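Quick log. Single chain, no ligands specified.
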Amino acid sequence: MTWSGGSFGSRAVCVLADNASPMTLDGTNTWVLREPGGSRSVVVDPGPSSPAHLDAVRAAAEDVAVVLLTHHHLDHSAAAREFAESVGCGVRALDPAYRLGSEGLGAGDVVAVDGLEVHVVATPGHTADSLSFVLPAERAVLTGDTVLGRGTTVVAHPDGSLGAYLESLDRLHALAAAHEIETIWPGHGPVIADALPALDQYLAHRQQRLEQVRDALRSLHAAARDGVPLDHDQLPRRIVEIVYADVDEVLWPAAELSVRAQLAYLSGGGRNL
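-> predicted structure:
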């Protein structure tokens, strides 16, 4: 599927950054939000420090009231301060280190600009500071890296937590089941038109991966009992080689982060899956 951004609903424009990679898919989605008839915009995740990209965001946004960050990873936040200073606004984020100005951002906050309302939902797991933004008027949610438009995301251990991530997916799933959100506007990849089945798939995928990790652990421990040494420092890598054997090896370092998060989760008892 070719993805290049564009206009969505009555209130959103996605400006795609030119930073495509195996980890960022087609690039970072910078979202420009504005109420119909409003004079000011909200910019979500300015992305990388690319002059051409920031020029395109400024052209789409015109007068910017505030920049919001879904999380601190540089492909989303690197240009936030630079962009905000260039347009004369602040940056609001959960992590104080990424703010510009005195206003933070957290669960339950409502960012209101010229009639536009953006409701903040805590969705930690990919990172500790991950947030999602619901636009009630569009029944849409901006998920950053919590849910991607294609494939699945990394739980970036140790900052990320699988337990927190599963709770975040449950939180988004409840919003979708209640028809408060219908579409997903992700931080990478194409828009997802039907949120509920996508979230069902994300939850099922995590359950499947956990079962695969459990099976790999059993196999490795059984082999150790049969005399094959088990180096616990290398255990996450060994599990990646088994569970992610069908995944491009360029993604194995990221997969290892998720495996470390899965092992930490399982060592704590996890939840009944």
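The chain has two domains: 6-195, 204-267.
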